[in-house]
Known about the structure:
Blueprint: E1 2-11, E2 19-27, E3 33-41, H1 45-64, E4 70-75, H2 78-85, H3 88-94, H4 108-123, E5 127-132, H5 142-151, H6 156-172, H7 174-188, H8 194-220
Parallel strand pairs: 1-4, 4-5
Antiparallel strand pairs: 1-2, 2-3
Helix pairs in contact: 1-4, 6-7, 6-8
Amino acid sequence: xxxxxxxxxxxxxxTANCISAGGVFVVTEGKEFxxxxxxxxxxxxxxxxxxxxxxxxxxxLHLMNTTEPEIFFVTDSExxxxxxxxxxxxxxxxxxxxxxxxxxxxxxxxxxxxxxxxGMYYNxxxxxxxxxxxxxxxxxxxxxxxxxxxxxxxxxxxxxxxxKKFDLEYAKAPYRVDNAKNLFERNHGxxxxxxxxxxxxxxxxxxxxxxxLHVESLVNNK
Length: 222
């Protein structure tokens, strides 16, 4: 079982000069770590998240065709989570990419690509699930994260440091994790096992740093 977490970030959201970025963080069943980045200029934060989704689906298909029997996708975007798990995108497709309020679907070009790849998962009976996790559950310094990424681009070292910090932060402010736990239960209809919840939170923090530091590097190097 592999866990693939996604997130988006942007600078200047909604402006002509906006740069959006998507981050993808992967840990395979064999404990192989990797981080992936995508970006788009003149974009929006939502498109950054969707580019990350598409990249994650591409990576997942490769893993399914090689080594992994099951994929867990993790996102802090309720929009992406609901669109996939409640099959909004299939309803849009059936209606000619029109929403329930008879408006054109935003970012249709990206949802078309995501829909095509999701079809490959279903057509091949691949085992996969999408999970929503609350974002920004605990802080982690960007300077420290950047240094760890420079030394270890796979982000395994960053993951390990965030994982270690989790228990310290939980001891100081347990309500943060409790809020994430309650939101998870509302969205999924069941309580996440404590270790799985911790894993998902740590994955989300790592991928948030991957995406946000990538967009900052793009802005600084313009």
